[in-house]
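Next up, sample data.

:::
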Amino acid sequence: MNQMTPKKFGIGAPVRRKEDATLITGTGRYTDDFAPEGTLHAYVLRSSMAHARISLSGLEEARAHPGVAMVLTGADLDGMKPMPVKAVMKQLDGTMHWCPVRPVLCTDTVRHVGDAIAFVVADSVNAAKSAAELIEVDYEPLDVIVDIEEAVRDGATLVWPEHGSNKAFRLGHGDEAKTEEAFRKASHVTSIRLVNNRLVANYMEPRACLAEYDADTGRYTLTAGTQGGHGQRDIIAKDILGIDPARLRIITPEVGGGFGTKMFVYREYPLCLFAAEKLRRPVKWTGDRMDHFVTDAHGRDNITTADLALDADGRILGLRINVLAAMGAYLHQYGPFIPFVGTSMSTGLYDVPALFVTATGVYTHTVPTDAYRGAGRPEAAYLIERLIEKAGLETGLGTAEIRRRNFVPSSALPYTTATGRMYDTGDFAGHMDKALEVADWNGFAARQAESAARGKYRGIGLCSYIEACAFPGGEEATVELNGNGTVTLLIGTQTNGQGHATSYSQVIAEQLGLDIGQIEVIQGDTDRVRKGGGTGGSRSIPLGLPSVLEASKSLVRKIKEKAADQLETGIDDLELVDGEVRVVGTDRSVSLAAVAAAAGEKLAGQEEVKQAEATYPNGTHVCELEVDPETGDVELLNYTIVDDFGVTVNPVLLAGQVIGGTVQAISQALCEETVFDADGQLLTASLLDYRLIRASDLPDIHFETKNVPSTTNALGIKGAGEAGTIGGCAAVMNALQMALRDGAGVEHIDMPATPHRVWQAIQAARA
């Protein structure tokens, strides 16, 4: 059989990551590696109580402590504006929701453990910490509320008494009257209540920042691990410091993971910039793991009830959903948008003619929440896939048939959902059937019997998901020819470890006839890169790559025009190969360096390809697992993924993204538990108490694609950065639910299904 030679570069080529040599040899530079001469170090004094009125003393002693350069409190910030909310939403009643004030440093009241009280700058971190210990915080304790269901009950302690309620907003989608009519016609209604547990991102590199001020130019520079400097620059400058954004440069070096949580502006950034200007010295803050747990935005944390109306044939008539979404003590930067965009995907892959969904934000005395990998869409997929699984059991149709019966058929695409989402392409039954085949679904009964003979409970479960990502917009790309014949790409996305430099370079390399080592990719510098949308919502490759490709083609045209004059031939007779422009079929050529030298100007291509609609990756995950009823331990035995990502740019990078996201979902389902006690103390505030999944807990994960190109994206790409987290939780929990139901009669279990919780559920069912 003839086999095609794999492409070396270009879209679809399995190029290995060019970034890895720097990272694995330890020569990559992260924010904490930067310390200019004269750098001062900062420490944030944080609240040890979840809700209290505060007053401070000992400030003069702290300021006089050896090595201390500055102590800031809320009274010292010279008109610095509060932390902004950039997602103020229109509610179901047509009004815009209220936003509380979140000061950069609290002045009279703290509202969660970790709330910022004072900012100490000194010659060393230890000196700053020692000085902070001299500041006496007089706490007048106030009542605390941490449970989101308790928070919305009458008479509950209020986080914001001036608001009069712990309900932050009420958003929604759909047609309530039409949905209620569908339920009146239903032959069967399946109901469910689910907990989507609160998560802490726990990227490898905790946040840090370095602020510098140039008195001669009046400009600031902030070095920080971000998911996009341009957006952060504008928020810090315009919304907090009140300066022209042109006066602020943000540099992002290597970033050790982001997952959405490094997208946001945090208090330390404006504080360090403010201090650097006042002190005329660089000011650096480096957070530790405890800082991460009590200050960086948390994710998820929903309690949802839902009802599914079915006709006599098991076809969906209507869907009714109510989400309580924890916001924490304040509305975080994009916090209100997360449940709104998530619930827009409530129908999943199914033809749901009538829907009404409400999302109520809830204040509690806890760390604020915001986007975390998937940002609302994992919550939506988890709900509909747990609900449809239960409906399959109750109707007798079973796991696969109820899905197949209700999938939007390929013949109906493009299809607009009841929430206004437009699914363009896909083969939903096709990837489910392929996943069932690969996972040997039909052979499961024999494997379950074998486990039972050993005293174990075995289960298999699936999740067929869809998500919206790469939301409408574009990303400008500039590809420049350098004097030595190499090429530089300037683009405003921001790698956090995904392999952007490889993906972009393989496309440029194909167009310009270069090796990817001859291409430099510049991200993370707001002075060098004109504008940028950053990285989030799986946007970088779907939005960035079409612009990179068109900018490369534009540069190629300009190079050929210049080379045609030098070679005295027509443009159509030229090709770019191995760093040269050649006359096709001859040995006549000129190097790219020579073209650059003769051009008399910088040769560059700059393009921004925009798209008007999101993309919709989709797929099926199948998980098979075994439970030890005596210990509650859950062992994952097999895991299968069949996904539709449209056009694959790099299969090696794609597999890494999908498997990494899936592992995060498995970790949420089985391990990660964020626990606040009744006083608002975070009991799981370190990696000794907050368990993450380990490599030894995981099976080999089988991943393959069954792709249908997108019609909304210029290159047919659908995006893959978040997909693993969206398909994973329901697959694991549906498998676990089957194992516990068949083995012990357990009717329901929520995430995280830790061994103790699983054991408790088994004991309760036996009793």
Summary: Residues 540-567 form the longest helix (28 residues). Residues 464 and 620 are 4 Å apart (CA to CA). The mean pLDDT is 97. DSSP finds 19 helices and 30 strands in the chain.
